[in-house]
Amino acid sequence: MIEFYSKTLNLKPVETKKLIYKLEQRYKKPKHDLNLFSQIQVVLKHKLIDLGLDSSATAEDIIIALNHKIVDVDQQLVRSFQTVAATRVNALAKVNDGLDYVFHEVIKDKQVYAIKNSFFKSYFIENKPKHVLSNLGYRSLNSLLKHEPVSLTILAVNLFESKTYLTKFFKHFLTLQPTDFEIRPIQIVKPHHSHWSQYFDYLERNYFGSAFAAQELATIIMPDLMDYPPVKSTLLKCLTMNKELMKIDYFNSFIKLHLGSHNIGLYVHDYLMGEYELFDPNNKLNLSWNNFHQIAESKGAKLSYGFLESSDFKNNSVMSRLKELSQDLNFFLDTNYVGALLNDQIISFNIRDVLKNSLQKTRQIQLSFDHLSQELYLKMIEPYLTKRDLGQILETANINA
């Protein structure tokens, strides 16, 4: 048991024991780790049976079977989106049209808090993003602001501008006032200019995603799939869209909580800076639970991504709709924190890890279990977690303290 926890959480055995001991002693929840491990083993046994395997299955057997399951889910979604498109949009039955219809159906009439566009436009007028203009081929700022949505402009700032510009840009959030917010519908923006295609290829490779949220603007940036999308790309887009929509939901809740504070600018600054530093691939931070909780604690992100991921399949309208479109997706409903330790290697059953590993071009690359690691850590501290006590939990869980 300790070996499984240690490998998954990227800790030494002695550190794992220390973490469990400190949590259990402080919060009087004995044997939670044992009960959780037993639960994982029961789920794992049933999943192996579902895959047509048994306890003698090798690591390669499991990886191949999970890959086949992912393909089945993806192809079911493709067929379902084509059917939706044919019955609800037009006879061309394009996957994109069906996917767009489903996601617009989920977000229709949903109103959330967002920062007004004018807050950003006034900043860009005073601080011209020269590298954005150059890379996107615009001769003037007026032309950029006229043709590109603010959400895409902010994405371009993150892609092209210098560290100095970005630091100043994030500091601008410190000036936010309650009057800079408004309630608006969630929007889906599709980049149509050809110059964006190469940059979204880069983003998909580095961020492992095909849609991106500007949650401060209540906007999802979603490039179109191909008319005949490559295998697994439809599932990747669905999972990414779901997570990005949940980021908007979380930001909305965050603003509701702090909007009445005179420090709203500081709260938003720390929130967005924590997210940026945690997930910017240029910072070369792996998503191990250790980095995750330490950066979240110091920057105010408060483990938001972990909580979002844990609730992916709970009371989630997007996932509920997708489960209707793909029966095989139900296989992954209870595997968020389930993994197997075979030959000193962790094999994750978390759907995001499985998809990411199945997209690797070579089996020589180390298998990813980042999402499993986050989920398992969150499940370990779940009994001890209260809203008012989150900071204290993070401090307690910091084994280096």
Describe the structure.
The protein has one domain. Helices cover 59% and strands 7% of the residues. The protein has helices spanning 2-9, 13-27, 32-50, 59-88, 95-107, 117-126, 130-136, 141-147, 150-160, 163-171, 197-207, 233-258, 264-279, 289-299, 304-310, 317-325, 351-358, 370-381, 390-397, and strands at residues 111-115, 181-185, 187-189, 212-214, 219-221, 339-342, 345-348. Strands 3-5-4 form a three-stranded mixed beta sheet, with helices on both faces. It has a two-stranded antiparallel sheet with strand order 1-2. Helix 4 packs across helix 12 (233-258). The chain is globular.
Give a brief rundown of this model:
The chain has 401 residues and is mainly alpha-helical.
- Poorly predicted parts: 276-315, 386-401
**Class from secondary-structure proportions:** mainly alpha
Number of domains: 1
Helix and strand string, N-terminal first?
Answer: HHHHHEHHHHHEEHEEHHHHHEEHHH
Q: Percent range for helical residues? A: 55-70%
Largest sheet geometry: 3 strands, mixed
The strand line-up of the biggest sheet is 3-5-4
Query: What is the overall number of helices?
Result: 19
For the termini, the CA-CA separation is 24 Å
Count of individual beta strands: 7
Overall 3D shape = globular
Based on CA atoms alone, the radius of gyration comes out at: 22 Å
Mean pLDDT: 79
Q: What proportion of the residues form beta strands (DSSP E)?
A: 5-15%
